[in-house]
Amino acid sequence: MAKQLETATFGGGCFWCIEAALEELSGVESVTSGYAGGHTEDPTYREVCSGETGHAEVVQVEYDPEVVGYDDLLEAFFTIHDPTQLNRQGPDVGSQYRSIVLTHGEEQHERAAAYIEALDEEYDDEVVTELEPLETFYRAEEKHQDYFAKNPDDAYCTFHAQPKMEKVREKFEAKVST
Q1: From 14, 17, 49, 157, active-site residue
Q2: Distance between CA 70 and CA 103 in Å, rounded?
Q3: Angle at 92 between CA 97 and CA 155, to 5 degrees
């Protein structure tokens, strides 16, 4: 009998960083970089970077809920980005880098809403993470898939993706793939 995988979609800055960090977790079968939350059909990276499409850079996570739960993914996601930064993460500025959780069904929506509400009480600044149902996910161009794995010496990855991966390894040591 095949595993029943579930899907989660998150955006919190550059998708290369989020992808690399979430791939560290056991039970995560795949992470695909892409675009969601906008109004342009089948946008390109260049179009999304212009800020004109309304899309965010996001990752779509296929995971085995018997190994890693949706709540674990939420915790990891909120560990590796700052949900109080509006339309930016680190050096990346623009609405395409906004913090967003795109849900797949009512249960995910309720769990993410409760998580964000609890998280908002932990921060001095307001949590600005958007929460909405996923309408359409567009897979990013192939050169953006597994970018960190293909370009581990890239300066951007060294300064931004690597620390996020290390945070996941440290905080979720028992749930990290070996």
Answers
A1: 14
A2: 11
A3: 125
* Amino acid at position 57, single letter: E
Q: What share of the chain is helix, strand, coil (3-state, %, to 5)?
A: 40, 25, 35
3-class SS of residue 123 = coil
Query: Can you list the domains of the chain with their CATH numbers?
Result: 6-175 (3.30.1060.10)
- Each residue's pLDDT tens digit, 13-72: 999 999 999 999 999 999 999 999 999 999 999 999 999 999 999 999 999 999 999 999
| Strand, helix or coil for residue 108 | helix
In angstroms, the CA 98 to CA 153 distance is 26
Q: How far is CA 81 from CA 46, 89, 113, 118, 129, in A?
A: 23, 7, 17, 16, 10
Is 14 part of the annotated catalytic residue set? Answer: yes
Q: Are 44 and 11 in contact (CB under 8 A)?
A: no
Strands (E), 87-156: 88-89, 92-93, 99-103, 130-133, 137-139
Q: What is the per-residue pLDDT across 76-124, written as a single tens digit (0 to 9) for each?
A: 999 999 999 999 998 899 999 999 999 999 999 999 999 999 999 999 9
